Amino acid sequence: MLEVRDIGLGTPPVPPGDIFITGGSGRIGTCLRQRLRPAGYNVRFTDIVEPADGDVQGFVRTDLADQDGMAEAMQGARAVIHLAGHPRDIDWPVMVERNYTGAYNAVTAARRAGVKTIIYASSNQAFGLHPADTVLSADLAPRPAGLYGISKVFGEAMLRAEAEAFGLIAFAWRICTFKPEPTSARDLRLWHSWDDAARLVDKCLRWTEPGFNVIWGVSGNTRVAIDDPVARRIGYMGVDNAEDHVARLQASGVDTAQVSEWAYLGGDKATGWMSQGNKP
């Protein structure tokens, strides 16, 4: 059953209106359902499978290919958090269906349903081929690592175009290493705790000014190099700090003195993508 987590959101009371999550049965969707509901948010969600935690309150089964079905399911919602898609480099036709057409259908369905706020799950992989010590900034040029990273560059561009044409409140949430706890030296910079993910989304859901925004999904890590004016403007500040896990990582053999185990911001995914060029 649903594990409810109260992390201190909801002060002042949350704005009225339903929140709709695509991909709500997945890791991030489950995390948000468990934390936004205790704060007072009325969460509805969709996925192609039922959630493993048994929480079917507000669940409707739809597919990203069905724009009409999604528009109908989103009716009455004031905000959509678009998480659905595929997080790995896979066959191009599947990537197009889920991360290109699927993102287009989700954003268009939200607009058709009268939704005013859209939070799009982007990724650090859209910038994954920058050096590992790169400063996370709003104007960082896209350097995607792989087909997945490329799809997130597309998603951000599409969301910006929709926001500017239709006056939406839009956030490209550049999620970094979303884990229960850090497991590598790279994570000491880029860890995004589950609780902080909900805190960030809560701040986005309270924002009322139309426009396109980019915000980096990281916790309050001592080692992160970041310049995020949107986070400052909306009042997001990560509470959790990967530095609290240094002793555990060192005990497990992690070299915590290094910036990252990999040369690129995108970590092992970026390294794997680049290694293709060295194959005979």
Automatic annotation (TrEMBL):
It comes from the Bacteria. Residues 19-177 form the NAD-dependent epimerase/dehydratase domain. Pfam families: Epimerase. This is NAD(P)-dependent oxidoreductase. It comes from Glacieibacterium frigidum. The lineage of its organism: Bacteria, Pseudomonadati, Pseudomonadota, Alphaproteobacteria, Sphingomonadales.
